[in-house]
Amino acid sequence: MSNHASSSDRTVSFPRQQARTRRFTLGAPRGFRIAGDGSRVAFLRSAAGDDPINALWVFDLETGTERLVADPRSMPQASADVPDEELARRERVRESAEGIVAYATDLDARRACFALGGALFVADLTGGEVRSVPTAGPVIDPRLDPTGARVAYVTGGGLHVVELDGTDRLLASDDDPDVTWGLAEFVAAEEMGRTRGFWWSPDGTVLVAARVDDRPVERWHVSNPSDPSQPSREIRYPAAGTANAEVALAAFDLQRERTDLEWARDELPYLARVVWKAGAPLTLLVQSRDQQRTVVLEADPSTGETNPLLEDQDEAWLEIVDGTPDWLDDGRLVMTAELDDTRRLFFDDRPMTPTEMPVRAVIDCGDGAVFSASREPTESHLWWVSSEGESVELTETPGVHAGVVNRDVMVVISANLDEPGATTLVWRDRQAVGRIGSFAERPSVTPNVSLRSLGRRELRSALLFPASGEDRKLPVLVDPYGGPHAQRVVKAHGAFLASQWFADQGFAVLVADGRGTPGRGHVWERALRGDLATVTLEDQVDALHAAAGQDDRLDLTRVAIRGWSFGGYLAALAVLRSPNVFHAAVAGAPVTDWRLYDTHYTERYLGDPNEDPEAYERSSLLQDAAKLERPLLLIHGLADDNVVVAHTLQLSRALLEAGRPHSVLPLSGVTHMTPQEAVAENLLLLQVEFLKRALVM
Length: 697
Prior knowledge:
By secondary structure, the chain is an alpha+beta fold. Helix content is 16%, strand content 35%.
């Protein structure tokens, strides 16, 4: 199957197309699970590029064919109602699709379980039968045990196990609604990449579950001013410098016998990872509140005792790397650590990767390890390193490559600059044996992009011009994210679609990744420690001037900047602190006062505001309000529970008190994501209108 394009693409505008395709993610395969025997790959995919309803599919390696297993549209017993806890989980992982958005399999991927509208379903991946399983309440995060005999799930804050015949047992619960079992707390899901809260033992006889006590966390309220008849929604939000949820772990056998796992939670309160695989001990990765210390613990679920295996420290912070900790078949611990200004892969205490290739994630461990890494920050490749240290690059085509591995079978997802979307190939023994099709729509714009390394820091940047190829002075639109944990400048076609559309409206668009963004080493990422504003803005200015020095089509008398989230913060920062460079800004969902953002993210870079308030003052926008002399449009979703609307409202109030005119666009019912089609479309159109007016185009 090849990329599918709707017949209406020729008449639908790019903003509408991007909105209805959820940024061209619909119709693309995802969520891959490989059977233990390597015979099949399960995955999710919707039926078209504008269809939000995901179904469950299987790809058979022997025949090279795909088979539909479960389609929500043919399951009338599945309710359309989604429990509030599931909606919160989807917001944390930025899930914009519907239908089957997550599923879990047994170890051999013979069965899969999933929730639809709070109802539990179990599918036979070999024969195709799908049946509902009665439960004690609306189901959150169901997971089959490794043998496929039963399902654990969360409902009403309690952890349950249900046999496939419907026999249901409550393993853990609490009388207080602010105490839950089996769910990830806010900062784990939002910032640590840990979205689950319980784990099966390899033999399916024991469950380890997180107990999350949210009672110490501040109560915030998110309201819907467009409907005053509705009460505000109370959330627990751990703002920087305030109390986090208290997280503990306990092991349960299927008869509800409980064993609490003990470690120094006062010193190491963050539970970053839990790993339990066959042939290896139950393994925890825990972290100090200041994130300068992590410890890998071996835990005994029968006694609750834990034993430290490895400790790491850093004077700035330590990153939590996906896929770690893990274990080789020979019993060696797999971790990453910073050495020689590079994140390197270690087997026990032996570094296995070179200094010029920072590791991004560990994907699979067995007789060796498969991992992703970058020699060039605009690319990401898959590598294998043997237990003895032999390294092999698995992907060589320039671009961005990701993968899912189970021993000798690998699903490789690849994107490049030249082709829209991504290709998904199934490999066996490092040879492609099949392709999983995509129904994602073909974008109506084609990026006219030039990748460059700009300035003395060789800032990885992209410069885009109108597809018409106009050879004249053009106003410039700087279009960054610019903050930690995200890159905008990568060798992938889809990374520049919106930027190209802005270019086609008459701009030269510049996208630059400055210090603090990933892929450039330890020192590069930590350059913004204690100050999120200065170096991030400095690098955008440097990239702009270097680009103009290379191409005289850039009109530096008309420069605008736009961004969302950290990019929104950076956009507002630019017109406040560098109005001589930036002449207009659109700031979407900006953080304006870092005291209002969460603990784990903010304290990593700025420390505790109670101990270092100056770092927060240096990074705040509020004290700069009186400096505004350029047009500024602030956009914010009123239902945002990540960057709450108070950020924009407080900046707007400070601007008003300083007598500085500005514009505010509130989005009713919109969260940090903007999945609503009409909202997402018109946001782009309104931004262009504002920028053209501000720059007198």
